[in-house]
TrEMBL record:
UniProt-recorded name of the protein: Endoribonuclease YbeY
EC top class named in words: hydrolase
GO cellular component, one term: cytoplasm
Spans annotated as Disordered: 146-166
């Protein structure tokens, strides 16, 4: 289930299709191999900062957080994801794609974490699988690729340059 908590939603947020995101979530969940249900919270930077501080001791907002369920009950409920709509909108703008595509990128990334992968500690396994699944799921760029190799992006989704004001 996807829950959207946005006190003052932008037109891009109100145009999101929960059913479309849910269909993508289920396709991506199957592609990753996550068998249990996944709850998704789409929220604000302020809430993400609170969650990040509470659960990771990092006092800043982030784009996606993953909360895996303990293994003994993970077959029923794989875990929860929290995604910042504010950060996702900024990233979508910077990379020249839609908010919907950015949310899909973040959903895939979070699902890979729920599946037990961690790009901060593995030897590139998560990045390789994310790249493979990006192609399969028709996503413009992977989160790991654009963070770890920003200068060598080959995707069409390159950051747009800000126009200087006269």
């Amino acid at each position: 289930m996807i829950t959207i908590e946005a006190p003052n939603p932008s037109p891009a947020v109100t145009a999101l299709s929960k059913s479309g995101l849910t269909r993508f979530l289920n396709r991506a969940r199957e592609a990753v191999g996550v068998t249990g249900e996944v709850e998704v919270l789409l929220t604000t930077d302020a809430e993400m900062k609170r969650l990040n501080r509470t659960f990771r001791s990092k006092n800043k907002a982030t784009d996606v957080l993953s909360f895996p369920t303990p293994h003994e009950i993970a077959h029923e409920h794989a875990g929860d994801l929290a995604i910042s709509l504010d950060t996702a909108a900024r990233q979508a703008d910077a990379y020249g794609h839609t908010l919907r595509d950015e949310l899909r990128i973040l959903l895939l990334h979070g699902l890979l974490h729920l599946h037990g992968l961690d790009h901060e500690t593995d030897d590139g396994q998560m990045a390789a699988l994310e790249t493979e699944l990006r192609t399969e799921l028709h996503l413009p760029v992977t989160l790991i690729d654009r963070v770890s190799k920003p200068a060598s992006r080959k995707s069409k989704a390159k950051p747009r340059k800000k126009k200087a004001k006269p």
